[in-house]
Input
Amino acid sequence: MNEILEILEKDARTTPEEIAKMVNMTPKAVKSAIRKLEKDGVILKYKTVINKEILREEDDDVRALIEVKVTPQKNLGFDHIAERIYQFPEVTSCYLMSGTYDLLVVVEGKNIHTVSSFVAEKLSPMENVRGTITHFILKKYKEDKDILKQPERSKRPAITL
Output
């Protein structure tokens, strides 16, 4: 992968001036290269990774991984059904997989019931969907190569009776 991309992937806040020093280029050349990567669709967006384990807010969304078995359509393959699935606003990611299921769909909802309703009312009844298995994410330890620091726990022993 391109050196500039590797640097930005690790920290998107790295300035063109800092990158220029790292890759032995001028800041102007780095800015130009970044603009081209953005224009060509190689860089889609810049993103902040938030450790929601520390925030632990009451209204945090629930995330689930859903294994989906499908029957691919003749002359359309898996792409057509995947496109129909990833258009739903609840779907944050959709992957074609090898193994015992065909698609892995990542879904977010306000609570377990909204995710369950999505699966029961929208996903499962779709033509060509043969079955689903839903896994709710209970806790995240690492995401996109970033270790999520766990909140400090009280060091006081629990009171037992």
Remarks:
- The beta strands are 62-70, 91-96, 103-109, 129-136, 142-143, 146-147.
- The chain has a mean pLDDT of 90.
- The first strand starts at residue 62 and ends at 70.
- The chain has two domains: 3-39, 58-138.
